[in-house]
Each structure stands twice: as structure tokens, then as C-alpha cells.
Amino acid sequence: MSAVLMPLVAQALPLADFVKPKIEYNELAPLLVVFGAACVGVVAEAFLPRAYRHLVQVALAIVALLAAGVLTGILMHDKKSLVAAQGAISVDGPALFTWIILLALTLISVLLFAERSIDGGLSAFAGQAAAVPGSEAEREGTAAKVEHSEIFPLTLFAVGGMMLFASANDLLVLFVALEVFSLPLYLLCGLARRRRLISQEAAMKYFLLGAFASAFLLYGIALLYGYAGTMSLPGIADALATKTGGDAILLAGTGLIGVGLLFKVGAVPFHSWTPDVYQGAPTPITGFMAACTKIAAFIGLMRVFYVALGGTRWDWAPMMWVVAILTMVVGSIVAITQTDVKRMLAYSSIAHAGFLLTAFVGLAQSGSGVTSGITSTQAVLFYLVCYGFPTIGAFALVTLVRDAGGEATHLSRWAGLGKKSPLLAGIFAFFLLGFAGIPLTAGFTGKWAVFTAAWTGGAWPLVVVAVLCSLVAAFFYVRVIVLMFFSDLPADSPDVALPGWQTTTAVALGLAATVVLGLVPGPVLDLASRAGEFIR
Amino acid sequence: MNIGWLTLTLLLPFVGALATMAVPKSKALLAKQVALGFALATLVLTIVIAIGYHRNGPADYAEDVTWIKAFGAHYALGLDGVGIVLVVLTALLTPIVLLASWNDAKTGRWSEKSFFAWVLGLEMLSIGVFAATDVFLFYVLFEATLIPMYFLIGGFGGAQRSYAAVKFLLYSLLGGLLMLASVVGLYVVSAKHGDPSYLLADLVKVDMSQNTERWLFLGFFFAFAVKAPMVPFHTWLPDAAAEATPGTSVLLVGILDKIGTFGMIRFCLGLFPEASKWATPVVLVLALISVLYGALVAIGQTDIKRLIAYTSISHFGFIVMGIFALTSQGLTGSTLYMFNHGLSTAALFLVAGYLISRRGSARIADYGGVEKVAPVLAGTFLFAGLSSLALPGLSPFISEFMVLAGTFSKHKVIAVIAVLGIVLAALYILIMYQRLMTGPVRDGIEKLKDLNYREVFAIAPLVVLIIGFGVYPKPVVDIIKPAVESTMQQMGVTDKAPQVPVTEGQK
Lengths: 536, 507
What we know:
The complex is a heterodimer. Chain A has helices at residues 2-12, 25-47, 50-77, 93-113, 136-143, 151-167, 171-189, 196-228, 233-242, 247-265, 273-280, 283-308, 313-336, 341-362, 376-398, 417-420, 422-436, 442-456, 460-486, 501-519, 522-531; strands spanning 82-84, 89-91, 401-403, 406-407, 495-496. Chain A is mainly alpha-helical. Chain A has a three-stranded antiparallel sheet with strand order 4-3-5, with no helix packed on it. A two-stranded antiparallel sheet of chain A has the order 1-2. Chain B is an all-alpha fold. Chain B has a two-stranded antiparallel ribbon. In chain B, strand 1 and strand 2 form a beta hairpin. Chain B is globular and about 70 Å long. Chain A binds chain B through residues 371-374, 378, 433, 438-440, 444-445, 447-449, 451-452, 455-456, 460, 463-464, 467-468, 470-471, 474-475, 478-479, 482, 485-486, 520-522, 525-526, 529, and chain B through 67-72, 109, 139-144, 146-147, 151, 154-155, 161-162, 165-166, 169-170, 173-174, 177-178, 180-181, 183-185, 187-188, 191-192, 194-196. Chain A: Residues 168-470 form the NADH:quinone oxidoreductase/Mrp antiporter transmembrane domain. Chain A: Pfam families: Proton_antipo_M.
């Protein structure tokens, strides 16, 4: 074994003469812009007077996201597809497509973070995170309208990490990216202005479990390195093709990496953090996490398993079948018993992860000669778009239903909402119908795409399980609609806050995406199909 | 390109729904008039199309625009004999329902205008379903019809309406989602043969293995069996029909449920001929059970609307039987049956609705001697009932006869047992009439008002058509026949059976 490893190790060691690494600045520009802006944001936080910080940070974040988006758009237009930064990052079609969605969704999320008009001129975030909940210091901070404008640089770091994660061509980069996007999220989760204890508990849970999952991932990376002698994904693929023996370490490494990635995806049995964190985190952050983390994690998962471990697909596919089925079944059935809107949406996001996994397991790849139709990558990318925009929109709506204690998220408080605010209830019902996959909404076309990819790859039993789970899922979505429209309004019903333009924009974009992708999904599907496969 | 005739037929009710919603809440009457106007305009348009179809054939009405290329989905509309009959039925029943339910939406959860708008929305989607010649488009519209119906039942029905609406939705979604699996499967099969396409014309040419065909068939058939509905997937219908307003029930049973039987002809027989033949014995037995079980349970009902719902289950048993008998007579009879059943059930539900709205109760036991107090109401009820039990001279008789004759020529035992259904039909209708209308006048009935002009005017077209097509069904049969023949040809089945006895007799 060592004889095989030696040359590879020798290659990886630094040479005596220093060679300047080749960095493709043009191709990496979107990443650099986002990370650069994040650093500038940190500096600005330290030097700017408090009065200007919020405005500057919001503007900086928006400008950075827009600029990165434009740069990514140019790269997409040029159909760039290459391995950059000495093999560490692959800037290929799926990566660029993911970047664009991430940037767009983060932009919407940033608008939501900046929303102040819902809660009496205050944002959804704690004024002073360090102040003890319920203390005098907290009240003083609230009265003085103190704010943490750090959330914007933190968000930029998170989205930069996500972008890196989705394009990591090397397991170490993957791990670094994971930490870069996770750590800001842990912090952001604990920053809710209302119900701070639950929020802090959520952050704690997320951090502990996330650290645990990171350890799994890291151990898996170590084992795979032990097997292949390299961290690079194509290198591992080559090792798989040429090497004999060492299967135990390979399988163990695959399994551990799988655990780490499936944790971020929110797949059963690694999902238990999702409902608690989604419930406790400030709702705009929940929307951001539900949409963006899932996207980044999914693309990372697919890249590792398709590019590096594609050669052993027959070893890991059965495991993923089981995970996919469990995720769909548990996600949709447990959602029925939920009594909190945010928890229900959390379980719904788990069920959606299950639907996405069917396409992932379907392994319909254009290269493999399985199909002339939809590929798994195309289907997953499309589904993520269909899922991301309405998700943020739905969470934005959740922020609007309020009573004296902040958001009224208990489902019983939503009874009769259709009478109080037909518009809000109607839009929320539409989002729910979309999540349920009713035709003429984005949810349907998305589902159709992933199911087709699954079936094309021969995973038709998964499709049957998926449609049955869709029915169960439809039940709990419809239950909320029944509650909103067919129940009577209680006397002490919560108020519906008047949203500012930020929230209105988020909801409107979610609505537009649901309608447009449901009626004319063609352009986005084409874009996803042009993204092609992951490059090696 | 000009807007096609069928697209126009879809747009008209849709614009009508929007216009109805746009009318301010204070002007409820205007909103209702606008809705009725659009419904009538749609009716006129479909009649023009039907006449044109009768003269020049289907070629003028085919539309085909690529919709989602990656899915192989097309916005493709077209008509055949079966489709045009159901499109006309939809356009005919909608204004009648609107007129008959003029005041029914007042007690609903939402404004009256939203009831009228939902009905128009449902009309648009239903017409689309009957005209779609692309499986994907059909599926999308098929599922989309659930939404207006869900809100019509849940928003404007009786005490248990939420429960009934959710039950309706979940049953339909169960069928629909299993069909989705089959629709996805069709794409995969089609993609294996080059460019994927959901056009019916392309899918007919696709070869699939016997096993694949059977599994895909089952997905479609299950959805249609739930929709139609056939025993044992029927339990949602009595609940939904009993809780909904009579107008909604008419749309539900008269139009939406027809999508099930229509789908069986166009998709099960059309796309999976081999599997349809394979499934025939089981389907015929299920249909027979529906005929008898529906009728028997109907006799025992204590609620007028539930009773009518069960009679429909029995009728749908006949329709499915005629379809899967796989004879041209049976198929033609079934298609005609769909049309006639739409007329007679609409009449029955609407008159029953008039009655119920006067007394405020749907329990049969609360009535008695109505014919003495409200003779016109009782008379129309009797007429509707007689048409439902297929009295000769009224249009359902012809279709029921054709179905039975068509079935008999290939499956004698089934047809003979099914004839019992006619006897039972006489029982459930006449016993109900006896309990409701004859005998001494019960308390609370004395001051029952007879039908007013609006109500008579709504029901009159149905009466005229039932008598008219009962005496002279040729125009409808002529339109249906070519479609049936082409379906038969596609399936590779012929009507040898009826000719055999003739030659034997000559020997």
C-alpha cells in the first residue's frame, strides 16, 4: 500500500523552490467580492459611528451581493467551466448556478434582516446579544434602539462560505467552507430580539450538533485521505478507479463524510436539530438558513458523491435510498403533529430534502448514458430554485403575524386568519399549495423534475414512496389552509403587522417565483440544463 | 398566430372569473349578472364550436404550442367526439348552475361573488381537461380543478363542509399523485425513444414492455377510479355532495367526476390498450359492484343529497362497464351516458336543492305530501327522478340500453347481473318520491312555496334536452361515433360479437 501512496504523497508535498500559485482571479471574483465585502464590513463595524452603521452595512451587503451576482452572471454567460486555484475550487456550471441562486436568496434575506417597520422600529435581532435576557441592560438597549449591525458582515461570511462549499473541489476546502458558513449561522441563530432564551438554546444546540457533525466529516476526510492519499475530489476518483484493496477504510470514510453532509442537508436520521433551530432562530434567519444552507449543502453533497465517490456508487447508493425514504417518511409524518408554524415548516423542509434526495440517488447523468432527458443535477438545481424563493417568502409572512409577545407562531393563533387578512392568508395558502406540489405552482414542476430524474435513474420505487409522502405532506399543508380559512376568528386573535417594502419585496419575489416557475419553468430549466455536470 | 377557438373558450370563463371578482362587494347582484353573462357567452361559443366540429371535423380546433421543452410538455388542445360532448356539457351546466344557485351562496363563508368566480374558474379548468391532448397539460389541469372545487365545498356548504372538503381533496390527491408517478414514468419511457414528448399523438407510438405498460396503466386507472368514483374508492363523494351546495354538487358529479370516465377512455384505453384488455375482468367486476352497491346503499339513505350521490355511484358503474366492455356500442353508450347523466343528475340535484332550501333540511323524514303544496316542484322532481332511473323516452334510457347491450355482446353474465341495477334504480327513486312528495302533508311543509320563475327557468333547459335527446339522440351519437371507432381501432378490438348471432340465426 505504501508503495502506491508514495508518489502521490510526494506530489502533494511542497517543492523546495517556491512556485507562485496560479489563482484565476477573474473566475473567483464573485467569491472574492463577497469575502472582501465581509471583511470591509467588520472594519466598518469597528470604526464607523453607531448612527451610520446600519445604513452602511446594509448598503455594503446589497452592493456586494449585486456585484457578485453580476460577476457570476458574466461567468455563466461565458460558460466558464474550470478548476481554479490549483485544483481547490471548481468553477463549473452547477457551481455558478448555485452561486447565482445563493446570491439572489441572500439578497432577499438581507432585505428581511434590515426590515424595521414590523416591530415598532426595531429589527428582529437582539439589541445587545450580551445583555442577560430580561435584564435592565436589555430594556435600556431596546429603549435606545441599539442594534447589532454585525449581522450583515456575518451574513456575507456565511454566504461566501456557502458559495465556496458548493464549489469545493478539495475535501479540505470543503471543510473550511463548511466552518466558514456554519459559524456565522450559529451566531445569527442566537440573536433573536423576542424569546431570547429559546433563540440562545437554538444556537447552542445548533453549535453542539454542528460541531459534532463537523467532526464526523473531518474524520471521514481523514479516512478518505488515508485511502486515496489525496484530498482532491478528482484525485479520489482516480484512486477509486486504479486502486485495489483498502475498501474498509474507503467505506468508513464514505459513511462518515455522508453523515457530515447529510446533517447539513437536514436528512433523517441527522435532522433532529432542524425543528429546534428553525423555531428558535430569528425568523428572517430561519428563512435564510432553510433556503441557502440547504442549497449549499445539497450541491456540496452531490459534488463529493458524484465527483469523488462516483466510482463506488453501488456501495453508497443503497444507503442513500434508505436515507431518502426515511427523510421523506419521517419529515412528512412528523410534520402532521406539529403545532407551531415554524416547526411545521422545518419538518416540511426535511420532507423536501427527502424529495431532493430521490433525484440525487437516481443518478441520472448525461455522461453515464442513462438518459436523453432530465439529469439529476439539472433536476436538483431546478428544485432548489423552486423551493428557495417561496421558503423565504413563507418565513417572511410568518414575521407579520404578531401579538404582544412577538410573532404568534402557534398554529392555533392562525385560526381564522383568512378573515382578518385575506391577502396574507391567501398568499400563505398559495405558498403552502406550492410546497404541497399542486400543479400550476413551482412546487409541482420542481417535484416533477426530481421524480423524473429519480425514475430515469431507475429509482422508481422511490418515486412511488415520494408521491405517497407528498399526499401526507399535502394533508398538513391543507390543514393550515383549513385553519386559516374555515375556522372562526378567536376574540384575542393576533394582529397582522403592516410590512415595510423589504418584507413586501421578499414575499412578492417568492410569490412571483412560485407562479412563474409553475407556469413557464422552461427558461430556468434550460439554464439548469446548460449548467451541465460537475467537472472533474 | 390567431388565438385558437379552444383557447378562447378557456379564456372567456377565466376573464369572467376575474371580472366577477373585480366588481365591488356592495354590488353583489351585478357580480352575479356578470358571471352569468360570461357563462352564457361561453355556452354560445362552445355551441358554435360544436356545430363547426359537426360540419368540418376536428382539424380546425387543434392547437399545439411547445410549453416546457425540457419536460416534453405542450400546450396542446384538440377535440374528439368524446371531448366535444363533455365540453358542451360543461358549458351547458355552468350557467344553469349559476342561475339555480342564485341565492345559495348567501350563507357561505365568503362573499357571493367569490362563489360565482370559483364556478367560472372551475369551468375553465374543466373545459381544459376535456380538450387537452397532452398528458402533462391534462395532468396539470386535472389536479388544478381540485382547488376551486375544494373552496366551493369548503366555503359554501353545510355544517360538515371543512371535513368534506378535506376528504375530497385528499382522496383526489391520492389518486392524482399516483397518476403523477405514472406520468413521470411515461416521460421516462418516451425519453428512451428519443426526444421526450407528452403529446398523445407521440405517446401512442411509443412501445413499452408489457410490465411497464401495466404499471403505468394502474397509476392512471387508480386516479380515474377515485375520481369517477368506483367502489371501493367512493366514500368521499357522498360526504362532499351532501355538504356542498346543490350547485356545487352538480358541478362535482356532473362534470368533475366525468373526468374520471373520460380519462379512462382517452388515456387508459388510448395509451395502454394492452393493459386495458388485461385489466378488463377486474374492472368489469368492480363496475358491477359499483352498480349494485351504489344502488342498494342509495335505497337505505336518509339524506336526499347523499341518496342522489349514491345513485351516481351506481350510474358511474354503468359508464365504466360500458367503457371496459370494449365494444363500440358500449363505448358510444358510455359517452352518451356521461352526457345524459350530467343532464339528469343536474336536474335531480337542483330540484332537490330547491326543496331543501325551502325546508332547511335534507332529511327525507322531514318531508311528506309536498306534491299537494308545491305541485310544480314535485312534478319536476318526479321528472328528474324518472330520467335518472332511465325511463324509456327520456335520454338516459338510450345510453343505459346501449351500455347494457354493448356489454352483453361480450360479457353476458356481467350484463345480466347489471340489469338488476335498473330495477334497484326504480326502487330508490320511487321510494324517495313516495316518502317526500306523497302522503299527508307534514308539519313544516304546509307553507312550502312552489318554484319561482328563476328556478323554473334554470331547470327548463334540462327538461327540454332530456326529452329531446330521449326521442332523437342521433346528433350526439353521430358526433361520438367516429371517436369511438378510432379508439377501438387503436386498441385493435372489433365488434365481431354482435354479428355472430345474426349469422347463426340465418343458418
